[in-house]
Amino acid sequence: MTTADARIRRFSTITFLAGSVVAVVLAFIVVPFVGINPATGELLLDDPNEYEYRPWADPAAQEVGRDGDTLIGAAGTRYLDIPAGDDVWVIGPLTEGQQDYLSIHQQIDADASTADDRPAYIGLVSGSRSLTFVAGDHASRLWFAPRLTDWSATVTRETPTPVDGATVSGEGSALLVYDGEALSARFVYAGDGFFGVEAVYPGEAALDVVQGFDAVDTRSSWPPSDRVVLRVDSDEGSGKWTIRFDEPASDSP
Hints:
The strands form 5 sheets. This protein has a 5-stranded mixed sheet, with no helix packed on it. The protein is built from 1 helix and 21 strands.
């Protein structure tokens, strides 16, 4: 090989490498993300995790489908509009796509800007886990984080019973809504089995205020709120429970 041939080959090699680098850079500019969907094997040209923690910012978000007591979601970001009111909603467990979980955020006021009032993370749904929530004074919107596969989940809606007075009693499970001044209550269960109470607020994950077995007598509180929905979980016929709200003393004689 002559000196001229060597120079030509060296120049060609440098030119090829430089061109390859430029091609790679241009490829990443045109298509900044390339990946493989592990569930389907399909080529991904968009980062599926880009809107994981802010699904409301996804311009491609679409409304989730609903068929009776089933939510039907496709791959990508989804949302669901919830009417105002004290009705308690329960989503889950997943009935399709159980191999992964579904993260959910709640936008308390669907008409408000998400830039001014960032939607709150309220929990996740899986093949064995459900999520309880309430809309409140305003129509709200649930945002479902993007998924790589289609999914479906059960959904139920129940109307709670208003609490009349400072004391309420019952047996078995119940849904109650309290709008008085108390921020705490005494929970008494004289039964045989599990007794649990969740407090539910708009834009918050359900809060376990009581969990116990057999005889329960405890006091628990919840954050300040105009009203709170209490979800009582107890087996029918296992025993009576009583909730006494710690209302402030009246000023009247």
